[in-house]
Amino acid sequence: DGSYDVFKYTLPADVVAAMTSMQVEAKASTDSRIYDLACDFTNPEGCGLPVGDDAYSVSFDGATDNGDGTYTLTFTVYVHGEHGLSHVSFSLPEGQTAGGLTGNYSTEGCD
Q: Are the C-beta atoms of residues 44 and 111 closer than 8 Å to each other?
């Protein structure tokens, strides 16, 4: 209740430039919800307000141009209810696959 998780993905710049939408599934116990994000995924400012409902919301927080032909995309998934997340799934563009875990993963509480 009031917590969030931050997720970061690094993808090729041409793939990110072609992205116009993404689906995000948030799940806790038997409650599963899918949210659609539509925005400019190359924007360093993100998409603005989160998309969601009384249980969860998802925001695209912005893109970082890594200067090597890739962007790192940052997303936050907020939990508004009493259940913690059991998993979150992000749709990836066709031909892109998730690799091993790299970088930092953190779960933090928010006010």
A: no
